[in-house]
Each structure stands twice: as C-alpha cells, then as structure tokens.
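Design review, sub-item: ligand-bound model
Attendees: FS, YL, KQ
YL presented the inputs for the adenosine monophosphate complex:
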Amino acid sequence: MPTFQAPRGTRDLLPADRVLWARAEASLRDLAARYGYREIETPLFEASAVFERGVGAVTDIVEKELFRVSPSRGEEREPWALRPEATAGIVRAYIEHGLHTQPQPVRLSLYGAMFRYDRPQAGRYRQFYQWDIEAIGDAGPAIDAEIIELGSRFYRSLGLAMVEARLNTIGDPVCRPGYLKALTAYYQTRIGEFPDLARTRLVSNPLRLLDSKDPAMVEINRHAPSMWDHLCDPCAEHFAAVRVHLDALGIPYRLSPEIVRGLDYYTRTTFEFVRPGAEGQQDALGGGGRYDGLVELLGGKPTPAIGFALGMDRIVHAMQEATAEGGAASADAAVPIAVIVGADPDDTVTRLRIATDLRATGLAVRADLARRKLGRQLEAAVRDGARYAVIVGDELPDGLVQLRDLGAASQKPVAVSALAALLRRKASAAGPG
Ligand code: AMP
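KQ shared the predicted structure:
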C-alpha cells in the first residue's frame, strides 16, 4: 500500500485512460464551436449561497452533497463551496458581467470538474466531469430542440447510438401548483404503501417522487395523475412546439412523465439522456431543462434560459463498454460559414432544419432562432463574422433560398439541396483564416 492515495471518490486518469477522454473532449469542443456555444470558465468554488439558491435549498445536492470548504486563514466571512454543477455559477457570471446587453440568447459552453460530497460508489464520484451547455435569453421552443439535438449528436459522435433522449414538461408557476395539489392528494390515498424516505419527500418535494426508483413508488406512480393533463395553454403549446421541432429534425425521443426537476425556477421542458440496460447509476448519462426563473432568483432581470449537463465519467465508461467504434466528427471552426435567417420570424422550424442538415455534413452553420425581423437577423449574422446568410422564404419557389454574400452585399437564388456542396467549396476556397 503506498503512503498516499487519491482521496476517496476521486481518481487519476492516466495517459492511457485519457485517450478516450480526449476524443470526447475534442468532439464536445468541435460541436460547441459549430453550434455557436462559446466557452466560459467560472471558479471551481463560489459563495455557497450561489448554490443554495441556484441549486435549491431542498435538493439532495444541497442537503447532503454540497462540498463545503472553509477558508483556513484570511478575512473572508462568506462560506464557500466547490461547484456541484455549472449552471448556478454561469448564471451568477451572466448577471455580474451584464451579459444581457449582448445579443440574446447568450450561448455558453463549459467543460470541467464538479464536486459532490456524496458516498462514493460505481459511477458516482466526489470529483467528476460535466459538459455543460446553456442558452440564456431565449424563451424557446426552437432553442429547446436545438439543445436536445446537440446532446443527441454528441453521443452519436462518440459511437453511443444506443443513448435515448427522454422528454417531459413540468409546466410553470401558473399550472404546476394545481398539478402538485392533485398529485399530493393522490399520494395521500396511498401513503400506507410509501417507503420512509418518500414520506419526507411528500412534504418537501412531491414532484421528485415521480422519478423514484423504489419499486413500491414505481408501482404507485403508474397510476399517478399526469402533468400533461394539467398544463396551462401556453405550456401545452410550448411542449407541442418542442416536439414539432424535434420531429422536423428527425430526433427520436421518448415521452417520459418521470423526468422531473423539483425546484420552482425550473419550467416546462425537461429531458434526460439514458443508456438503457446499464447497471446501477451508470445509465443516466446527462440531462437538462428550462429554468426560466433562475436568473431572477440570483438577482438578475427575469430571463428565460435552458441548458444541459452531460456526465463525462459515465460517457467515457460507456465508450469503453461499447464494442462498436464510433466515428468522431473532425471539422472545426469557431465562426459559422453561414447563418440561416428567414423572412418569416416565426418559421424557426425551417431555419433550424436547414442548419441541422448542413451541420450534419460537417459545416459550421448557425440558425437564427430568435423571432426577430429579417434585418435584425442579418445584422446578427454580420456580427457573428459569418460570410454568408441563407435567406429562407422570401417569396421564392419551394426549395430555393437566397444565398447572400454578407461582405459583397449581393445575393442569388440557390436550391437547398445544392447548399452543402456550394458552402463547402466557398469554405475551402477561402482556406484557413
Ligand atoms: P445532474 O447535474 O445531477 O443532473 O447530473 C447530470 C449528469 O452528471 C448525470 O446524468 C451523470 O451522468 C453525471 N453525474 C452526476 N453526479 C455524478 C457523480 N457524483 N459522479 C459521476 N457522474 C455524475
């Protein structure tokens, strides 16, 4: 036994282990750049209040998993904690640096270590790694689909085609209270069958009982009332529109009422990425959702936002187990060659679909998903440094779009089917830089 060992719940990744990690990291950096999610770094520790508000005082993370650190010397009076997840720190930075004055949404990507002081076991570490994506300042629904598609593409790029997307909605502060009432009333009728922990949760956080893995609760939940029957009209429309966008992109997903978040600032879309059949904790590879109430809760203006966190330790474990070799994407470019804009601000489906198809061929392309006027979309494309704008739906026959050279301010009609080849020629003609 050596004198010193890595602390319990942590591990060393030796050069041989790092090969798969590096491949996954290269893929996430490539995808983040192509989708226009720019890197942000936040400190590994923050005032613990950032997480107590941002993660929520009644969650497991804060109750028992927050990795608290106390300054050993100096004047600081504020207690600190190592970050258990990235969102709260990113939102703190968004507010602190006034990022709401930049074009919205602000698309951000963070890859790094997270810390939770939980009992270590297979697939659960005290220091682990997440890829975190946030789009702050867009109420969706198109951006919801963009983010779910991005997560799905990441797993596919690593050869993990078996990973399933599971989708749900948890409503909003208008319709959720009514649902919680109905849910609690139902649970009261079956409280005699509840496991102990579930009894406490029924008071603190009834929604979280829906994702319980306890067999007794799974059986009780089979007959529980559904959020879907209690959605207010705007939430029902949002949920339907997210699905329309996902269907238009050809992204498979399973509707799963058990995918929930227990905190008030989470709204509407929730999703998870699952590897069916993986043992124990190892099947949950990532998840995310909309958190329209969080920016305000941390002291900013009310701002809609959505994001995901993918667990890299379990992803690399799945890569090790996967027999099939995955082909990693190799294109890299931070600036999009083209931005897809549209004359009809509301037709985000077409813009997102064309951008998705072009990205699938390896091109760096962004869709403008904000429902703003064409002129504003074009301005944003120029600010992004794109060389071309693809203009959809300006009274052209079906299948034709305008390809606008943003530098020369000239444009010509092009068939959608010819776009990928044409943009690739333009990109390679320009050469690097
Ligand atoms: P969460 O932030 O809890 O929604 O977790 C998102 C993803 O991070 C999960 O699906 C896991 O893949 C991963 N994850 C969460 N906690 C741990 C942990 N303690 N050790 C390893 N991976 C984790």
